[in-house]
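Minutes, methods subgroup
Present: GH (chair), OT, SY

1. OT presented the first of two proteins processed in the latest run. Sequence and structure tokens recorded below as shown on screen.
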Amino acid sequence: MQLEIRPDPAEVGRARRWARSRLAGSGIEADEPLAETLILLVSELVTNAVVHTGRPAVLRLFMPDAASAPTAGERAVGEVVATVRLEVVDASTRAPRPRCADGDDTNGRGLALVDGLADRWGWSAEGAGKRIWCEVDRCSSATTLATGCDAAPVVTPVASPVVYGDLAYEAV
């Protein structure tokens, strides 16, 4: 599935709405932590494309079949983890560059958030531009969020702050 994005900041909201509707259609409920994480990642990647390139872009969303995805509260031993992949393709050859934002800065944290929330991310040249992508594994319980799907669960309070570098954010 893909959505063409105009070089206009208003497109970020449209991209979020589009992604929410596609997630709901795939069996990922709006109140699942996965859905909230994916919408934030869409926001960050589309914002970067719109703000830093000033050119049209394409948002792509790759989701597993709803039937093959683990359901909330259950995950069989040895089950293959379902992965959701987001890609934004733009017409700029300039590589994404993480920035260090100071305390009161209103921007400069996007790629740090992507790095902290996605299980994997990266970029590659694509034609006359680039593709920035990230992947999130669909886990079945909140205890695996801090460690990833393959690690042993660590029991932590859901609202405890997660620290990334000198940034902290809270999962609610």
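2. SY then presented the second protein from the same run.
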Amino acid sequence: MTLEQAQQAVDTWIKDVGVRYFSELTNLAILTEEVGEVARIIARRYGDQSFKKSDEEVDLATEMADVLFVLIALANQTGVNLTEAFQKGLEKRTARDKDRHQNNPKLKG
């Protein structure tokens, strides 16, 4: 699925199942909540915290997909073409960081 197809799929789902888009501020709050759920899993799986019983069955991929869904919804309702934005972001990072990471001794070996 391309980003364009994902944007269309989210738009269709929201209109057919979700009735309408939540406000941008509500979606921002939901996005923050979903990112927090990803952070909780990573802190426990890869960090120093231990899982609570209620967190043991959570799935990182599912939580990441929830973040992506809400981010796409925000892009749709604010008129952002994610394909174009992502490509511009890659070009910006390439121009800015092409030598920076190659010359970083912390990343070698």
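Chair's summary of item 2: The domain at 3-103 is CATH 1.10.287.1080 (Helix Hairpins).
Next meeting: continue with the remaining queue.
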